Amino acid sequence: MVERLSFEDEISKNKIKSIFLIIIIFIFFLILGYFISYILDPSYFFIIMILSIIISLLYIVISYYNSDKIAIASVGAKPATLENYRMLHHAVENMSLASGLPKPRVYIMESEQINAFASGRDPQHAVICVTSGSLKKLNKQELEGVIAHEMSHIANFDIRFMTLTAVLVGMISIAAEIFLRSLWFSGNNKGDGRAKAILIILGIVFAILAPIVAQIVSLAISRKREFTADATGVKFTRYPPGLASALKKIKLDHITEQDKKHYAKALAPLFISNPFNAKKFSEIFSTHPNVDERIRRLEAM
Hints:
Elements lengths: L6 H33 L2 H24 L1 H8 L3 E2 L6 H14 L5 E5 L6 E4 L7 E5 H6 L2 H16 L2 H25 L10 H45 L2 H13 L4 H4 L30 H9 L2
Parallel strand pairs: 2-4
Antiparallel strand pairs: 1-2, 3-4
């Protein structure tokens, strides 16, 4: 007998896991700060951390406040007019009512692959973009399932959450880089020579590995947000087979090298299915969960 899953439990569980993972990234940042403070000097700690925070925030915040415009421009999407894309607009309106959110601006991008993404810093500045292939290959229930998934990202403020994750990962990467470069110019001889040498080696190893591990953790957060969006989408539609059927079609949908040119790699994590991930890497390096596991969970709801 298949164990039934509650979409409410799935939403709660994956949100808690996302918060736990982001705490892990923050702990990595603090450990790196400890090494910087002890090996170099406490004053270096504040200088390096302030620099890493400022650089990371400037880069990310500019992208965050223009995320909708950047995303649409990057894939060459065009506004989807009501006259030409009536079914798409009806699906977005239905999910807007179900979620209690304002209707986002609707765009269409040319691609034969079934795919879609949502972007925007908040529900008032949100956009939903659907590929032309989705409209050709999905029926009404499947399209509503995909739209519900994307509306869930908007409702759960996933752009904001992933921006926070990106800021923390960026801070770790920048701080680690500055720290490693600073070691060449440090004349600090504080402490016992042997103990200091061991600590320096540990600090170097941690500074090299911390950005890599933080990035892997951020990918895990991205996968948890996808599971959350699937479950929240079911909450909006009350019809799990719609999204499950769409994911089955996505699984069998092959993207050509020519079609990949329509996608910006930087935006791949936003899509309901990452067009660059297919069967290439282990899930630990993937922005999205295994599609079979997503389907299994949906069919158990």
